[in-house]
Write a structure and sequence with these properties.
Rossmann fold, two-stranded antiparallel ribbon, about 10% strand, five-stranded parallel β-sheet, globular, about 325 residues, binds thiamine diphosphate, 11 helices, alpha/beta
Length: about 325
């Protein structure tokens, strides 16, 4: 999906809603697969669907994105096949990485998803390097890196923002501030209580946006992508959002946050908000919305069947296409 307008047109709005519903259904099914013991350590992004969707609405297949340990939503928003993703989660040979990457290392070069990564903060300099490549090659390509509030305190972000600032690189630093790094609250770990304010130190705009609003994410993402393509340099975006599940699914978030807070963020649910907008603006009827929701559910059911019926890689493939480091 690549659009340049400042307000989303009907086609884009419907794409955003379907994408967000697809992400939620994918995450729900992935949870069921994990509960059935078919994968372990699955980090769900339920609640955070609007963040990559509003940004990726402006990206082309040849733009790059980079993710984290919690990246299913980034991949889906960038157009990676949910069938191949689900197969990857289950370690099957039909997966995006032939079953050798798993939930935390999904990549699809054809779609510009250059990789999720389990090491917190590690993809920030890599994404900045991809932006440098686009600049050197003279394309108008854009690189986007998603990371959490926990990663915002990693040195990698600051080194990369400095280089991106002096070289005016076409990169978007997108912090998904879901208020917790595992169980550590944002207030406890982020000095100054703001990620966006840090942009000032590196000569780039720092924008706070309601990450529960697909429309606001679309607007802020559009301006940042426009700046990057025009050679005006990087932007730091702090999208304020919330993850509904525990850190990796099996933990209990109520051990470190309260029901009132959870209820507050769920009352601002990004899917419900966009659906209400579609109805109020007569962009789609209830029946059309239901049809979109059904299509998303069907896609995920098909992805699950495909993944479960796919074969595991052969034993002799164990050491092919993987990096091996020798001591
Ligand atoms: C360098 C590094 N330190 C610690 C960890 C363990 N770890 C995995 S996820 C996580 C929390 C990350 O929080 P945040 O960046 O806010 O992302 P979120 O989980 O909220 O999406 C930590 C500390 C890690 N994987 N890598």
């Amino acid at each position: 999906m690549a659009t340049t307008s400042t307000a989303p047109d009907t086609k884009t709005l419907l794409w955003m809603y379907r994408t967000m519903v697809t992400i939620r259904r994918f995450e729900e099914q992935a949870r069921r697969e994990a509960d059935a013991g078919k994968l372990r350590g699955m980090h769900s992004a339920i609640g955070q669907e609007a963040v990559p969707t509003g940004i990726c609405a402006h990206l082309r297949d040849d733009d790059f994105i980079f993710g984290t340990h919690r990246s299913h939503h980034h991949c889906i928003a960038k157009g990676v096949s949910v069938k191949k993703m689900m197969a990857e989660l289950l370690g099957k040979s039909t997966g995006t990485n032939k079953g050798k990457g798993g939930t935390m290392h999904i990549a699809d070069i054809d779609k510009g998803m250059l990789g999720a990564n389990g090491i917190v903060g590690s993809n920030i300099p890599v994404a900045t390097g991809a932006a440098l490549t686009a600049q050197i090659e003279g394309t108008d390509g854009v690189s986007v890196v998603f990371f959490g509030d926990g990663a915002a305190a990693q040195g990698t972000l600051h080194e990369a923002m400095n280089l991106a600032g002096i070289w005016k690189l076409p990169v978007l630093f997108v912090c998904e501030n879901n208020r917790y790094a595992q169980s550590t609250p944002f207030e406890y770990s982020v000095a100054g209580m703001s990620v966006a304010n840090r942009a000032a130190g590196y000569g780039m705009p720092g924008v706070v946006v309601d990450g529960q609003s697909a429309l606001e994410m679309y607007e802020v993402g559009g301006e940042a992508v426009r700046r990057a393509r025009a050679g005006d340099g990087p932007t730091l975006i702090e999208a304020q959002t919330y993850r509904y599940m525990g850190h990796f699914g099996a933990d209990n978030p109520l051990a470190y946050r309260d029901e009132e807070e959870e209820a507050y963020y769920k009352s601002k649910d990004c899917l419900a908000a966009l659906k209400a907008h579609l109805v109020e603006t007569n962009t789609a009827t209830e029946a059309e919305i239901q049809a979109l929701e059904q299509q998303a559910a069907d896609d995920i059911a098909e992805a699950s069947t495909f993944a479960n019926e796919s074969p595991y890689p052969e034993p002799e493939e164990l050491t092919t296409e993987v990096y091996i480091s020798y001591p």
